[in-house]
Amino acid sequence: MATDIQDLLAFVAVVNAGGFREGARLSGKSASSLSDAVRRMESRLGVRLLNRTTRSVVPTEAGARLMERIVPALGEVESALDVVNDFRERPCGTLRLNVPVSAARLVLPTIITPFLKSHPDIRLEVIADDSFVDMLAAGCDAGIRYDERLEQDMIAIPIGPRFQRFATAASPAYLAAHGRPEHPRDLLRHACLRGRFPSGATPLWEFERDGETLNVDPSGPLIVRLGSAVDLAVQAAVDGLGIVYLFEDWLRPYLDSGALVPVLEPWWVRFTGPFLYYPGRRYLPSPLRAFVDFIQANRD
Fold first, then answer.
1. Which range marks the domain in which residue 212 is found?
2. Are 154 and 280 found together in one domain?
3. Which terminus of the chain has fewer CB atoms gathered within 10 Å of its CB, N or C?
4. d(Cα 243, Cα 255) in Å, to the nearest integer?
5. Domain check: are 47 and 115 in the same one?
6. Cα distance between residue 138 and residue 264, in whole Å
7. What is the mean pLDDT of the chain?
8. DSSP state of 220
9. Confidence category of residue 137, pLDDT binned at 50, 70, 90
């Protein structure tokens, strides 16, 4: 049963965007052309693929099953066509990365400039998102994640620091007024500046020392969305509002300047650094292949 690949691309664009209007904006097509394409597919297949309301467009069960199969397949087609770039002197095209905000801030800054300078025909698009998304369904070529959040059946290579730590810190003024915690349980009596994931979960603060692991659930006057609003919590800590718990590298400039002081440092948890992960395709898009080669060649 023949189906135009452009119609398939239109269907994927509408589903990823959650509607015809947004799909049109992102794809550069008109909303009516996308609607016609989906209608043609539904007519050929004899099944409804999308449920349309005045407020939303969501895939039916059949449409969702089609998305599960067609997105990887279209990626393979794009990658296979991209092989012709091997005949160019330099790889070209767009590389889309889905990364957590922490990676965008702490890992990529030292990588992006030298990579793009060495590959002037590549355009890099970075989507910073702390939600746990399906990288391929989101239209990305690769992602950066920590090992506990890596998707199965993906290739993963280290990127950035091999080890990191979570740190707790407070301003000198706060500690002078409220005292210094000597044990993680003491945090339950302090004002703590918390973070919440986009999913709504508020992660516990984890500590470890001499084989002892503790998870603490303190409270405080401020909760921010992890990633996008973390700097508000850092500034609040600098201003003496409470104790903050964050990547050591994120807090390092404030610790070095004395604006913040380490708290419970012997208990700081050390963990494996992030990974670049991508599908194990036979053919990688040339921008992704160039990025993988660059990361491996410049690994610490």
1. 163-272
2. yes
3. N
4. 13
5. no
6. 40
7. 88
8. -
9. low
